[in-house]
Amino acid sequence: MSTLDPGRLEEAQDVEAADPGGMLRQVASSAAQIREARRAAVEAGVAALAEDGRPRAVVVTGMGGSGISGDVLAAVCGLGCPVPVTTVRGYRLPGWVGAADLVIAVSCSGTTEETLEVAAQAARRGCRLLCVGGAGSPLADLAARSRGVFVPVRSVGQPRSTLWGLTVPLLVAARALNLTDVPDAVLESTAARLEDVAHRCRPDSEPFVNPAKRIALDLAGDVPLVWGSSPLAETAAYRMCCQLNENAKYPAVYGGLPEADHNQVMAFDGFFARGAAPSGPSDLDDFFRDRSEDAEHGLHLVVLRDTEEHPQTAKRRAASVEMARDRGVAVTEILAEGDHPLERIATMIALADYVTVYLAITLGVDPTPVPAIQELKARIA
Ligand SMILES: O=P(O)(O)OC[C@H]1O[C@@H](O)[C@@H](O)[C@@H](O)[C@@H]1O
Fold first, then answer.
1. Whose CA is closest to 260, among 309, 323, 317, 329?
2. Are the C-beta atoms of residues 333 and 300 closer than 8 Å to each other?
3. Which of 66, 89, 245 should be mutated for ligand 1, with most atoms under 8 A from CB?
4. Which residues contact 308 (CB under 8 A, 6 or more apart)?
5. Averaged pLDDT of the chain
6. Domain SIS spans what residues (predicted)?
């Protein structure tokens, strides 16, 4: 059983010992992934996808840490994108998808059954096909058989930590199709920002100067509501919840403004907000005794705050934070850095990724393996 021990985050050697699968190293490789994946996408001839002109729609299919590449692509293309960009998670390609559309199948292992199934449907319907994932995999074979473009991706360990290796080929394809403006200079500046986050969050930097360790300690024992203050930040919020689930084996609820102000905000007045949180190990109570007047662990609002917000949404964000604090709900804000949408989403994701790994470590949970996911796959095999 996992127990909370803030001391586990103090010394670099303890942090490393608590991370036998090297998840912190995997997270730190994000900048290198951007550079390597750009080269791989260019070498694989992704630009050839533009030869037949712009598709009617872009449909990304993938699961878990791979599927989210579609959300990141849509967020970076933004509301100004001339064609719809959508993500399909599951076994079926929607009926409207056809030969006029580009389908992008993403799977780090290249073996995920839902992704292979949807990619095969796309090939049968004559869609333009781009496959991104493990070399020599069933997905690579499918791309070859269907004369699709295939970009090989080197896994850095887990699919979810290979996020940028899996996403950058999609961005390179989208820029070839004139769906978004992500020049090499932006890929490079994003990589540089990720290196900077990695430096600030490195294992040997102590909790009082390490933003990720500090947030992890604040969050431990609480029930996180993770909200994004823009569509871009909402995608980062979803990613943070998935990383809380898979790295920290921790529950989390994601939302985005303004929608969360129409439903989730009610939780500020509910059971979890009053500190009547689910009973946990009693050492949690001691640890959180002096965190707030209410003493108990309860609801924790994590706001991923974009620098570009609709003015009304910015008002809603500020009012929501104030209302949470008035009610004794803990609040943490994570700020986007940079100007370009890619820099902004990548910096929020990077800091949040580190938070989830340090939360795992302080809870005594190994961040890397996902045994329940494996068990599920085995049960249905
Ligand atoms: O990227 P692929 O290999 O398709 O995996 C997709 C997802 O599969 C799940 O079962 C987990 O392993 C996730 O962490 C992963 O993101």
1. 317
2. no
3. 66
4. 230, 232, 344
5. 94
6. 46-182
The residue assigned the tokens 């020599």 is: 136
- Residue 107, ligand 1, Cβ within 6 A: yes
Q: How far apart are CA 102 and CA 119, in angstroms?
A: 11
d(Cα 329, Cα 190) in Å, to the nearest integer?
33
Q: ipTM, 2 decimals?
A: 0.98
Structure tokens at 277: 């949180």
pLDDT for position 276? 45
109 lines ligand 1 (CB under 6 A): yes
Q: What is the pLDDT of residues 182-200, one digit of tens each?
A: 999 999 999 999 999 999 9
For the chain, which domains are there? 6-22+196-362 (3.40.50.10490), 44-182 (3.40.50.10490)
Tell me the three state secondary structure of residue 228: strand
Contact (Cβ atoms closer than 8 angstroms) between residue 76 and residue 180: yes
Closest CA to 23 of 373, 356, 368: 368
Instruction: Answer whether the bond into residue 258 is a cis peptide, omega within 30°.
Output: yes
Residue 112 Cα: closest atom of ligand 1: 4
Q: Distance (Å, rounded) from C-alpha 30 to C-alpha 32?
A: 5
With a 6 Å cutoff on the Cβ, whether 108 touches ligand 1 is yes
| 372 dihedral zone (left: phi>0; alpha: psi -120 to 50; beta) | alpha
The whole-number average pLDDT for the span 63-71 is 98
